[in-house]
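Q&A log
Question type: sequence-to-structure
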Amino acid sequence: MARAQRGKDPEMPGAADEGEKRTSLVDDAYAALRAAIRDASFAPGYQASEQEIALRLGMSRTPVHEAAIRLQEDGLVRVLPRKGILILALAPDDMREIYDVVIAMEGRAAELVAALPDHERLAAAQALDVQTDIMAQAHARSDLPAWGEADEAFHAALIEHARNGRMSRIVQSINDQSHRARMLTLNLRRALDASIAEHRRIAQAIRAGEGAEALDAARQHRIRARNELLPLLDSYGLKHL
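Response status: OK
Response body:
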């Protein structure tokens, strides 16, 4: 029995440590590659070997390979056997599909948040107001990057407070896909003040516990954004994003 114990004890902690280390490395590679895609450090259409991408990220090839498989599931890359990793581009039709999903998801999220108990609902409305105030301040000083960050934070807070894990994962995935298009067209958009007013309407409906109003406000906000963005892509001939 003592001999069996000697053979067992030293191995188990080591295996667990190795597993945790590997998971951490893959998570780090996933976050780094995802960030590089979102900020266009790896531009749409860029293709390279896993080793080249690993070198650019300052990482090992194996965790980058596993991270790329996860990002392929997210719709951000395609892993090409023996050819490396391809950063996927978006077409206007892809953006149209993305907005179809976002319109439905965020409308439902707003409805769910409006149905929360009073203290939780009011806290959610306050969090939305904070981001909207930051947007308004950024708009006043013509700081488009700050406006864009606060806008993204507003929508992330709306989904977070809905407390639906599947909804969060789906929305995060499509937000990653559409991020480049939103940032690329930010300088071209003209109705930034309209977004601020629409955000306030969503927060007010949530604060009042008016589910139908919150749903409608969130849907109409995203519908207007879609109707503004898609013609911009067409008018500027942006076929791949």
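Response note: The longest helix spans residues 11-38.
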